[in-house]
């Protein structure tokens, strides 16, 4: 193709090139374009499938995350209940131990009081016996003779009563 003085000249080369171009275009359209189109279509479907799987995976992950958060909240609630229950149990145990300690202290005090009273009674009995012996000895020395059993008991009882009366006053 030549331009001669602004006029387009069409010659045989132009027609050969045009026919070759059209043949090449037909071959490409018939054999190459369908393969390229099929590859593009397959790639588009592959990308669409990957996007669908990614969306499903995202939904499943969100669902698992929600379930995990629910289990975590439930575990926190249970932990709070366990802690609260342990606090109540500890408070109850403390109260029980305090009551038991108070009962033990009361029992020990009561036993000590009984022991003291028993020892006091023993001491009083021992003192009465000694006082009776002293009274008999003193009476014998003052009177100068032995008393009969009846007067002896009478004097002892009177002396013990006086000691008991003095013990009650002091």
From TrEMBL:
One term under GO cellular component: plasma membrane
Q: Which GO terms describe its molecular function?
A: proton-transporting ATP synthase activity, rotational mechanism; proton-transporting ATPase activity, rotational mechanism
Task: Enumerate the InterPro entries for this protein.
Answer: ATP_synth_B-like_membr_sf, ATP_synth_b/b'su_bac/chlpt, ATP_synth_F0_bsu_bac, ATP_synthase_B_chain
Keyword list (alphabetical) reads: ATP synthesis, Cell membrane, CF(0), Coiled coil, Hydrogen ion transport, Ion transport, Membrane, Transmembrane, Transmembrane helix, Transport
Its annotated compartments are: Cell membrane; Endomembrane system
Gene3D superfamilies attached to this UniProt entry: F1F0 ATP synthase subunit B, membrane domain
Calcium as a keyword of this entry, yes or no, is no
Q: Give the coiled coil ranges.
A: 37-119
Top-level taxon in the UniProt lineage:
Bacteria
Q: What kind of membrane protein is this, topologically?
A: Single-pass membrane protein
Which residues span the membrane?
12-33
SUPFAM superfamilies from the entry?
A: F1F0 ATP synthase subunit B, membrane domain
Oligomer and partners: F-type ATPases have 2 components, F(1) - the catalytic core - and F(0) - the membrane proton channel. F(1) has five subunits: alpha(3), beta(3), gamma(1), delta(1), epsilon(1). F(0) has three main subunits: a(1), b(2) and c(10-14). The alpha and beta chains form an alternating ring which encloses part of the gamma chain. F(1) is attached to F(0) by a central stalk formed by the gamma and epsilon chains, while a peripheral stalk is formed by the delta and b chains.
What job does the chain carry out? F(1)F(0) ATP synthase produces ATP from ADP in the presence of a proton or sodium gradient. F-type ATPases consist of two structural domains, F(1) containing the extramembraneous catalytic core and F(0) containing the membrane proton channel, linked together by a central stalk and a peripheral stalk. During catalysis, ATP synthesis in the catalytic domain of F(1) is coupled via a rotary mechanism of the central stalk subunits to proton translocation.
Q: Which family does it belong to?
A: Belongs to the ATPase B chain family.
Q: What is the protein's name according to its record?
A: ATP synthase subunit b
Gene designation per UniProt = atpF
């Amino acid at each position: 193709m030549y331009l001669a003085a602004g006029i387009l000249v069409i010659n045989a080369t132009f027609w050969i090139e045009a026919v070759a171009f059209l043949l090449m275009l037909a071959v490409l359209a018939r054999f190459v374009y369908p393969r390229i189109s099929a590859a593009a279509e397959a790639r588009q479907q592959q990308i669409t499938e990957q996007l669908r799987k990614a969306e499903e995976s995202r939904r499943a992950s969100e669902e698992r995350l929600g379930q995990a958060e629910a289990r975590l909240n439930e575990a926190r609630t249970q932990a709070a209940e366990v802690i609260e229950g342990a606090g109540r149990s500890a408070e109850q145990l403390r109260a029980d131990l305090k009551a038991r300690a108070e009962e033990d202290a009361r029992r020990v005090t009561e036993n000590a009081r009984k022991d003291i009273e028993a020892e006091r009674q023993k001491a009083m009995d021992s003192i009465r016996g000694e006082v009776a012996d002293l009274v008999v000895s003193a009476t014998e020395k003052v009177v100068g003779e032995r008393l009969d059993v009846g007067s002896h008991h009478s004097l002892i009882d009177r002396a013990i009563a006086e000691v008991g009366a003095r013990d009650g006053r002091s």
